[in-house]
Design brief:
Number of helices: 15
Order of helices and strands: HHHHHHHHHHHHHHH
Number of strands: 0
Shape: elongated
Oligomer: single chain
Length: 236
């Protein structure tokens, strides 16, 4: 299927009357990852069927051709949330900094999954200009969105986010707390040690434990010293 004739068959199937065949053809083209199919996949983003448009967006994300960023940005106006989710994911796969602005806007999408995927995409791009918007998104009421936001901040590794990541260790959701510990472990900023230590006296035991995990994951001389001091106090 990966030769020229196979590509031609798949491209023809994108015009088939059967929506399942069109969707499958788009997916197959994405799997082949040949940039010569970008044009027809861009056209497929205008298909009347939601699943075909969604699959076309995912395929463009797999191909990772920056020339498709502009049309994917336009596709974020799609009325179908599954299509927007696929588009946001594709932009994250392509990792083009020019899409940061629209991904920041997607953090305010009406759909939880789209907001979550937007955060993950921004984490893939790792552009520090998105940090403020991600910090704001930590107020999201959806656990999965906050989890994705914390993960993205950990990927970007901007020192300005340490304070909110320490706060994330107190989140009501355990997965968000774990993600906060992992993010602080990736950033490894020594200034965060004193802030994390303050959580050792938190009344909620799970917060105390995740604070300790954060220091373990940081694995710096300062964090190791703080751990040793804390363990000594507990034993005493």
């Amino acid at each position: 299927m990966e030769d020229a004739s196979g590509m031609k068959v798949l491209i023809e199937l994108l015009k088939d009357n059967n929506t399942r065949l069109r969707s499958a053809a788009a997916g197959a083209l994405g799997g082949i990852k040949d940039a010569s199919s970008v044009g027809v996949l861009v056209e497929a983003l205008k298909d009347s069927d939601d699943d075909v448009r969604s699959m076309a967006a995912r395929a463009l994300g797999e191909i990772k051709d920056a020339s498709s960023v502009g049309v994917l940005v336009e596709a974020l106006k799609d009325s179908n949330s599954n299509v927007r989710w696929a588009v946001v994911g594709a932009l994250g796969e392509i990792k083009d900094a020019s899409s940061v602005g629209v991904l920041v806007e997607a953090l305010k999408d009406s759909d939880d999954d789209v907001r979550s995927m937007a955060a993950r995409a921004l984490g893939e791009i790792k552009d520090a200009s998105s940090v403020d918007a991600l910090v704001e998104a930590l107020r999201d009421s959806n656990n999965n969105v906050r989890w994705a936001v914390v993960g993205a901040l950990g990927e970007i590794k901007d020192a300005s986010s340490v304070g909110v990541l320490v706060e994330a260790l107190k989140d009501s959701n355990n997965n968000v707390r774990k993600a906060g510990a992992a993010a602080l472990g990736r950033i490894k900023l020594n200034e965060s040690v004193s802030k994390i230590i303050q959580l050792y006296d938190h009344p909620f035991g799970a917060v105390t434990e995740i604070a300790r995990t954060a220091l373990e994951l940081m694995d710096t001389p300062e964090s190791r010293a703080a751990l040793a001091e804390y363990d000594a106090k507990r034993k005493g």
